[in-house]
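Q: Could you fold this chain for me?
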Amino acid sequence: MDAPGFVEDIYFKPLLYGLTVRSPAPSGRLTAIECPKLSNSYFLITAKDIPGKNQLEDSSVPILASDTLSYIGEPVAILLGPDMIKLEELMKQIRVVAEEDAPVFLSHTVTSGMILAERKISPADEEKPFAGANTIVSGVYTTGIQEHWYSEPTGAAAHFFEEKADKDKTPHESILVINTATQWPFHVRRSIAQLLKIDQSRIRVEPTLIGIHMDGKIWYPSLVACHAALGAWIAKKPVKLILTREEDFRYSPKRSSSEIRISSILDEQGELLSTEINGVIDLGAHGLFTDELLDQTCIGCMGSYSLPRFKLDAAAVKTNIPPQGPFSGYGLAQGVFAIERHISHIADTVRQDPAEWRKNHRLGKNSRLAAGVSLKDAPPTEQLLDTAASMSDYSRKWASYEMLRLHRQKTEWKEKGETLRGIGIALGCQGSGFLYSGIDKGNYSLELTLGKDGSLEIKTSMVSSDDEYKHIWAAIAAEILSIEPGMVKIIPDGSADSGPASASRNITVLTGLVEKCCAAIRKQRFRDPLPITVRKICRPAKGGGSLPNAAGKIPDANCFAHPGWGAAVVEIEIDTIEFFPRVRGAWLGIDGGKILSENRARRSIKTSAVQALGWACREQLVYIDGAIPAESFAEYSIPSPVEIPPIHIDFIWNDTEESKGIGDLPFNCLPAAYLQAVTQAMDHHFQNIPLRPRELWEAAKLRKKESPV
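A: Sure. Below is the predicted structure, expressed as structure tokens.
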């Protein structure tokens, strides 16, 4: 069978289809699953049928809940059968019985029992009073959840493949082949191995097309793949299990919500004296990637500025909603949004251009991020801000819109017929890779073999949303080894764990390994006979900051030592009849170090920019009593092609530098720039995304009451 594009394209004969039986309760204890009598070709698989470990690898997530129920929609059983119509009829007759407990949802009060992890940093002179302090600027900055909206709902297919016997006619054990759209094939493989209690060598993961995933396919496909694998193992037949679009929408992981309170004390000249930050992120049930998401958020909300005397108190909490997970930025975007909105609020308070305030308080050479991460180079803050400002004509527009804003304060508010305009600017950074690694210890590898015919094979378990890496790696090999790019082959291989395709690791970490392997082969090729095989492993460098970690984990020093940087400008206009901001344009200045493929870099930035603006202005989604309402599926709105504004990108070119992560930068700076633009247009300090038209209408109503008579 040819390699499938999507899971939906896979078909076997015979084939069993799978449906997921889910918990109706947000919290409680599973007491029974009532099911009608099934014929021989149908199966109801529960936790008691699991031969190995009922747990997803390196997490507390059960494959099938057996006793404790943690959220509405948690899988409790798998129903298998050859006829999908009959399966759906049977599903209507299955009843899950539970003894419900009082669920816990995020509110203004966080109890100790909800806390998964917390971080606290206090200045040494915390009790020292400030002389001359006369201004306090405070805000509560909140971000909502965001849906990934994949090309195909999450699904998996599983079947057994009988390999041919050796020449000595020794039969091989059958291989369990898994097809699923995953960013991390080895996580799928390890999870299934411990679930079925078999050796990993008997499992082969063949990734299908992942499309635009925004880091939503790190761990969740492993859970669905385990369900399909368990079904194939028990039924002894191929199994395909694909969630419906609505099912995926309501129960798959989302970007975690956040609430970050920031308060700063300023002196009489408007200079910062101290900053206090209190943050909470809601990770839902089970708390996957807790340390990663929390510390990325902390690093983000302490910003890219010189902060004298800051205090931090942040926590990741566990609630009875589906597990929340990574979405481009791993929490960094939520933190950067909060500090960037706060910085703009400070600039507005002291009546200074937000761009100039950022330049005056930027980090310098040999500086450190507030979390204690050392930077190898001085951030190109001023250059990036000037680049974005020049492209957008920011300085002239900001001054003009500011004059109009001040003029409207002295005149009567016109409720209808006026078009309001505003412009905002923000700064952001992005690391490369994870701060923390799981059971694999962060040791990721590639294997290259130069054959006798001059061909080069690159073995990797890496997956990508496009084929651009093949061209990038082929060009690198051609330059170093003087071979034709067409002689380079990328071989999907299950023995070389290349880690998750996430956080720009492919372009920064793995591309660096390709260069090192090629350089090693070049040294050996005229001394040793062909073929020559070289394997390189990337190991994390310990000691990456000063965030206090109760779990005793040490972050990777490489993650933020050489970050990518970006500055964004967004201009908007608001019709005072509809009160829906229309983005007139977005401009981004990007420092990505050595850009290996300009086309891919621009495509990645534009894709992220559209998603980031959607998060900021329209993607309204909430859990009510632990569940996403069914009507939200029909009402959920993402930007359509005709609504995408002009997006302009300029790179700071430096081919002497190493490549940096850039794909998540739009999420880290565009939302804050967008909200600042709306704030200037409406003359009202907005603090949350996504921003709803009703909030603009209420701000206009308040402004009208305050207008001079």
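A (continued): The two ends are 77 Å apart (CA to CA).
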